[in-house]
Design a protein that fits this description.
The complex is a heterotrimer of chains A (100), B (450) and C (170). Chain A is an all-alpha fold and 100 residues long. Chain A is built from three helices and no strands. Chain A is elongated and about 50 Å long. Chain B is mainly alpha-helical and 450 residues long. Chain B has 18 helices and four strands. In chain C, helix 2 packs antiparallel against helix 3. The radius of gyration of chain C is 21 Å and the shape is globular. Classes of the chains: A mainly alpha (100), B mainly alpha (450), C mainly alpha (170). Chains in contact: A-C, B-C. At the A-C interface, helix 1, helix 2 and helix 3 of A face helix 1, helix 2, helix 3, helix 4 and helix 5 of C.
């Protein structure tokens, strides 16, 4: 039996990788991919605890996370396309009209 | 009359051959299952699964896929009233074009690979495999034959081992149909990456067309099967096949096509679009953009080419299992057959029935491909989002309502019969009657063609 | 620790998962990042199967690998975003801070995980039923009915929003 902490460690590492992707990369698409990675890490935690406690509720939460991630990807990609159309770039540093 | 007798004999020989083939599959699966259980102590399903991978996925799928390449040439020639592939002769006879199989394989394997400059190297090499692998993996959950006790195949297996069931099915995951949706949705990577990695405008155009078409049709593909899931209350294919053997209207079994005629049509159309063959062949569009594989040569092209034909085989198998009663030989009652013949012959006949239905469906797909002209791109998207998708959603609602009112599926079967009648009537009414004199004209044209 | 098939499978999925996840962040071209992420989703699905979450594993491949990532790839191809634009120098300092932040988050997570009691996985009451379509469906339609319905509303809003945002004129 693989102990639950191993899955938690794995999820923590993945979450960190995803977070560093969000902070380091300037391409909006890769930033969104890193967010997906973080959502997946959270899912892994839910499923690991669901398996540990034998409670199926974690699976339902994972299901919702997947649905929300799909919605996020659809809207996010639409935003990326709109930004590309107006600015000709998807660099997140150049999208600062609200700040200046 | 002679011709008719010849046809009947030919069909009989083919069916007998298929029955013999599935008997051989059962023997292989049972034998390996017994060997694994006896000498390695593994559960019998292990050995059966390994034998089934070899026999079903390699023998049935690959051989019928490559035979289809020849069949398509011959059949298109017959439909276009010309003499088909007949230039390779063995001892003075063309043998129905079969030698072309060897010639094609030899050509593709020995051709020089001419990769384009500026390609994205890794993805370019990976794309043919990515196009082929998902299609290949789809066949794993097709139940080709019913489970029969191991003791009936191997005499020396006795006791609990002897009563363990051996079926012609590689794997049976709990999520059944979801596996089909999940894996078939991966096929788009091969095509779109092939287009992208080739560093060619036309290939990229083909790749973009392929991905947009396949994403769209996946939606209606998934929704079209929800009705059958509701009706049979399961996602496992083998349970669906078993449920289709039960009588619903008098002696008529609860076939998927009877309960879900609309679902069948939508699934067939969407799956046909997923195979990217005419009338949905815009990603390839041989006459304008050549397609996403324009920069591929040799066996890399061959793999993509073969993937298309293997897709036909898989699609036929899925439709057979979900809509046409799977391994139930519809002409005779399954229960009667089970009690009359030995278990091995029962399994063999059922497996032969499955293969025979698959062959009919493959023929149907070849016919459609050579009958219909290509759609325009806006027509493809309109067909998906404005016709198939609403129809699929309406189908789900009607099916669910009918099952809520009458869980015994009788109401659903009557609705299905009514739908079939209505669709038939509309087709007959819309189908254009030949204008006077057209027959003579067509006949004269055919003669002139000679 | 005894070596079991489950343990071997865990490492077979876990190591490539971390490698491909790193590949997403390291890859220079968005297409390679996307393909790495697809591979990562597959290994993740393998881990889900190890955790007896069969339905979620299939959903993972169906939704993430089959739909979301295809959409990403489609956008990359459509906008022909081949190479990432060279990054500006003045951002370098911020990047180091970013890495520092990520690593400190890992430290926080580590201290939290260290406090998790190392309880063994529970033995399931019905092992062949846990995580199947039926079991998850039952809990979705009873205990989580309201979130489930709200999710459908969310998806509807997302569809309409995506069309409104991406379309030039409606």
């Amino acid at each position: 039996m693989v102990p639950v902490t191993w899955y938690l460690w794995l999820a923590a590492v993945l979450f960190t990788i995803g977070l560093s992707g969000v902070l380091l990369k300037r391409n909006a698409l890769i930033v969104m991919m890193s967010v997906e990675l973080m959502l997946n890490a959270a899912n892994l935690t839910f499923l690991a605890f669901a398996r540990q406690s034998g409670n199926i509720g974690g699976h339902a939460i994972a299901f919702f996370v997947i649905a929300v991630a799909a919605a996020e990807a659809a809207v996010g990609l639409a935003v990326v396309i709109a930004i590309y159309r107006t600015r000709g770039s998807v660099n997140v540093d150049e999208v600062r009209a609200l700040r200046e | 009359m002679n011709r008719l007798i010849g046809m009947v004999v030919l069909i009989g020989a083919v069916v007998a051959g298929l029955v013999g083939l599935s008997a051989a599959f059962y023997l292989a699966a049972g034998g390996l299952a017994w060997v694994f259980a006896e000498y390695l102590g593994a559960p019998p399903s292990f050995g059966a699964a390994i034998a089934n991978v070899v026999t079903l996925m390699l023998v049935v799928m690959m051989i019928s896929g490559s035979l289809l390449t020849v069949a398509e040439r011959k059949w298109s020639a017959m439909m276009q009233n010309r003499i088909g592939a007949n230039r390779i002769k063995v001892l003075g006879s063309a043998l129905g074009g079969i030698p072309f199989l060897a010639a094609d394989a030899l050509k593709m394997l020995t051709k020089e690979s001419a990769p384009p400059r500026g390609r994205t190297r890794v993805l370019y090499e990976m794309a043919p495999a990515l196009a082929f692998a998902p299609v290949f993996a789809l066949f794993a959950i097709i139940p080709l034959g019913p489970p029969i006790p191991l003791g009936a195949i191997v005499d020396s297996a006795a006791g609990a081992l002897g009563s363990a069931g051996v079926a012609l099915q590689v794997a049976s995951p709990d999520a059944g149909l979801l596996y089909i949706f999940a894996i078939s949705s991966l096929a788009v990577y091969g095509t779109s990456l092939a287009g992208w990695a080739s560093n060619n405008k036309l290939a990229l155009l083909g790749g973009v067309r392929a991905s947009s078409q396949m994403i769209s049709y996946e939606v209606s593909l998934g929704l079209s099967l929800v009705g059958t899931m509701l009706a049979y209350r399961t996602l496992r294919l083998e349970e669906m096949v078993t449920a289709q053997g039960l009588a619903v209207l008098g002696p008529v079994p609860a076939l998927g096509i009877l309960l879900q005629p609309v679902g069948f049509l939508i699934f067939f159309a969407s799956a046909f679009a997923e195979t990217k063959r005419a009338p949905f062949d815009l990603p390839e569009g041989e006459s304008e953009i050549v397609g996403y594989f324009v920069e591929y040569s040799g066996m890399k092209f061959g793999l993509m080419f073969l993937a298309e034909f293997v897709e036909i085989v898989v699609l036929s198998a899925i439709i057979t299992a979900v809509f046409l009663g799977g391994w139930h030989p519809i002409v005779v009652s399954t229960e009667w057959l089970r009690q009359t013949v030995t278990p091995l012959w029962f399994g063999a006949i059922c497996g032969g029935a499955f293969l025979a239905k698959m062959i009919v469906l493959m023929w149907l797909q070849l016919t459609i491909r050579w009958l219909l002209p290509r759609f325009r791109f806006d027509q493809i998207q309109k067909l998906c989002w404005k016709i198939l998708l609403p129809a699929a959603i309406a189908n789900i609602f009607i099916t669910a309502g009918a099952l809520l009112l009458d869980p015994s599926m009788q109401l659903l079967a009557w609705i299905g019969v009514a739908t079939i009648v209505i669709i038939g009537a509309i087709t007959a009414a819309v189908g254009r009657a030949p204008a006077p004199g057209e027959h003579d004209h067509a006949a004269a044209h055919a003669v002139a063609g000679h | 620790m005894q070596i079991t098939a489950e343990l071997v499978c865990f490492w077979i999925f876990a190591i490539p998962l971390v490698v491909t996840a790193l590949g997403v962040v390291v890859a220079r071209s968005p297409v390679y990042a996307a393909m790495n992420l697809v591979a990562a989703f597959f290994f993740m699905a393998g881990l889900y199967v190890l955790l007896a979450a069969h339905l979620i594993a299939f959903m993972q491949i169906l939704v993430y690998a089959g739909a979301v990532m295809v959409l990403f790839l489609f956008v990359i191809m459509l906008l022909s975003l081949d190479e990432e634009h060279p990054q500006r120098e003045r951002r370098r300092a911020m990047q180091y801070v970013g890495v520092l932040g990520a690593v400190s988050l890992l430290a926080v997570l580590a201290s939290a995980i260290a406090r998790v009691p190392d309880a063994a996985m529970s033995t399931l009451a019905q092992p062949d039923r846990f995580g199947t379509v039926k079991a998850v469906g039952q809990v979705l339609y009873t205990e989580f009915l309201l979130p489930f319905e709200v999710t459908s509303l969310l998806l509807l809003v997302a569809i309409v929003g995506a069309v409104v945002v991406a379309k030039e004129r409606i």
